[in-house]
Amino acid sequence: MTSQDCIAAIDQGTTSTRCILFNRQGTIVASAQVEHQQIYPRPGWVEHDPLEIWARTQDVVRRALASADLRGEQIAAVGITNQRETTVLWDRATGEPFGNALVWQDTRTAGMVAALAEQGGQDRFRPLTGLPLATYFSACKIRWILDNVEGARQAAEQGRALFGTIDSWLIWWLTGGPRGGRHVTDVTNASRTQLMNLGSLAWDPSILASLGIPEAILPQIVASSDPDPWGLTLDDGPFGAAIPVCGALGDQQAALVGQSCFSPGEAKNTYGTGCFLLLNTGPKPIPSQRGLLTTVAYRLGTLPAVYALEGSIAITGALVQWLRDNLGLIRTAAEVEPLARTVDDNGGAFFVPAFSGLFAPHWRADARGTVVGLTRYVNKGHLARAALEATAYQTFEVLEAMEQDSGVRLTALKVDGGMVQNELLMQFQADILGVPVVRPRIAETTALGAAYAAGLAIGLWQSLEELRAQWTAEREWTPAMPAALREQLLRGWRKAIERSLNWAE
Hints:
By secondary structure, this protein is α+β, with helices and mostly antiparallel strands. It has helices at about 50-70, 110-120, 125-130, 140-150, 150-155, 165-175, 185-190, 205-210, 250-260, 315-325, 335-340, 380-405, 425-435, 445-460, 465-470, 485-500, and strands at about 5-10, 15-25, 30-35, 45-50, 75-80, 90, 100, 160-165, 185, 195, 200-205, 220, 230, 245-250, 265-270, 275-280, 295-300, 305-315, 350, 370, 415, 435-440, 475. The protein has a seven-stranded mixed sheet with strand order 17-18-16-15-21-22-23. Helix 10 runs antiparallel to helix 12 (about 380-405) and helix 12 (about 380-405) crosses helix 13. The chain starts with 5 loop residues before the first strand and ends in a 5-residue tail after the last helix. The relative contact order is 0.13.
């Protein structure tokens, strides 16, 4: 292998951290992955230890390099992709966090969100940010830390505190940490804080003022792929060499790039802990009238930003984990498919996994998880099947809203993420959508998108056309369900959704 023909992608997700090394052909050379602790101090509270995440990041980088028998100086650039909205506040002098990170799933800010909505409606910031008021985004999480963690607001007002989503946290440490680390965030992650103006791509002073957040704690907003690197990794860091850090994308935008969805109208769905469907809408943001998010898809260097419509679903793969961990219905996540295949249908049962409310297109914090349609006939196979089907129904709702907002009729859906290995789910997804579902040859599209961002920045790849030429399909599922059955199932799902609402007070 020639020197510097590999890109290192750090993929810091909700449950684990990975480092994947890609070559010029976009194929995987080596990878390493380690899980981190999920912390649940109270119902609805979800936290991560930022220092554990940084330690895991260093570990997987070293392990990936060792697995490929590569030295750090043989890596051309570093790209980062990350769980979005998860919020960290730390001391710029020491790197010590002001408590645990508040994870995107955390709902402790529900009261704050409700109070803000009373003053100006749930959409009071949507014209500026493309986002409704919700516990999901970073802004209220920052405010909660400033108001509730001892010493945090004082440090922020004195210029000692730094805020970041996980991309900022890792870039700061990789480029020096307390020894001069760069405090930046890319436009895609900034667009998920509910503090960035979608038009200007700058922090919005009116929102900062209304939330009482000092601008001094915020990172500099940069392009997703930046020919001017934000910094170099340290010789005594995990790479053991000075490598440019120059690519960053929030995980769902990274998957859009990894799936080569570079033209308006192209869409992908990532099936992970949650489900995230993004549609490229081109160089102008499209306001949603149907509960979707308007967000930045990516920005390459000094080119104009590209925007997307997004449907965010909170619980998909996490429902399979719940069947495993909370009910003991299965021993491993992979067992859900054979269990679901023991029956021919859902037996009339529908499972709405609104464990922390419903995200797109409903945005109902009062919803809670519901299983309806139970009879003595229903067994554990039906429950497993209903759990898988819930992912497909939620995706249908988002895609329906997306087509209505954009006026674009999708002809196929590119899919990625851990659940796409579940062939029963993929066939059911094609049946419910009525369009083909396509799985790519390279399944790790999130990490690949981060690698593409870094590789474009240093010229390892010259154009989006070159990246598009590398994308190939591995498997396609085509719709086979009769239309009458499809409509019957969708009616059942809509009734189930109605019964999940108005539960939490």
